[in-house]
Amino acid sequence: MSEWRFWFNSQRGTLLALAIFILTFAIYLANHPAIVNNGLTVQGVGNVVQTAANKGILLALIAIAQTFVVLTAGIDLSVGMIFVLCNVVASFVVVNNLGAAWGFDLGPVFGPAVGIVLVLLVGIACGAVNGAIVIFGRLQPIVATIATSAVFFGIALWMRPQPGATPEFAKALGKVMLSKVNGVIPASMVFLLIVVVLLWIPYRRSVLGRATYAVGSSEAAAYMSGMPIRSAKFLAYVWSGLFSGLGGLYITFVTSSGQADQAAAGTYTLNSIAAVVLGGVSLFGGRGSAVGAVFGALAFLTIKDLMFVLNVDPLWQPLLQGVILLIAVSIGSARLFQVRNRLELFG
């Protein structure tokens, strides 16, 4: 088998998600009122792309968080609640002067950067709790994360019974995130690209990253091969918590506030699973990538926006969206009906 054929077979799901995204976004762009009324201009296309990017990055981050756990053949139903909890925590600590919110001065050194680190540590801690319960408590991931999600939401609701933020919140960060680099490229997409390059790619090529795929493919075989199973699974949940924390930071930058929103948490959790599947990540584990999950998230949101642009009756939109998602997933999984051995997936 040639190297290119092996690469194509291993990236089939990602490439399909990319194709779906390009197709749906092209149709969306051609029917967008800003393009229809003003013509195909660089500024018009740039504004549409920026709007889509600002909406898509949050689901993309949560989908990446979900990907780490799904690769181990698990599922994390707490990613939405971790995202909400980090959003609430960020509304307290991402401030220009960390001590100002509590009535004392810590100086400019303890500014937004320290608050950002604290929020990410909260996300990592939540992921570590999930990993510890699943690995050492030997509970099924779906059961463990349902339980922890309730705990995380309770903490968020205790901290923020009502939406809001401290007066010292660093609002300038939101302006940066919603801006354009060189007046063309959305800053949010640059941020997402940096995250993928600096975090996902090194992880994918690391020993524990390869072990994660091995665990998802066959945990028994990975154990017999001497793979660090526990470390790989634990790190997968930690990474999941970290990316959920990044999602919480992003929404805080954009809204300049925190809110214990249970509905939003549930919606993003379910949508992250749909984005992961649409992105070619197998729910059986061991196959897929965060890049595919990003394209899956962008395609998922573009399909929703396309329904709106085409003036589809809101009562029909969930049905049509579900049918499109089902068709896309079925196409990506068609070869499974012909597989007698999991090794044949790469044959």
From TrEMBL:
Domain of life: Bacteria
Keyword Acetylation: no
Any one GO CC term of the record: plasma membrane
Subcellular location per the Swiss-Prot or TrEMBL entry: Cell membrane
Keywords carried by this UniProt record: Cell membrane, Membrane, Transmembrane, Transmembrane helix
GO-annotated molecular function: transmembrane transporter activity
Membrane topology: Multi-pass membrane protein
InterPro entries in alphabetical order: ABC_transp_permease
TM helices/strands, residue ranges: 12-30, 56-75, 82-104, 110-135, 142-161, 181-201, 234-253, 265-284, 291-312, 318-337
Name this protein carries in UniProt: ABC transporter permease
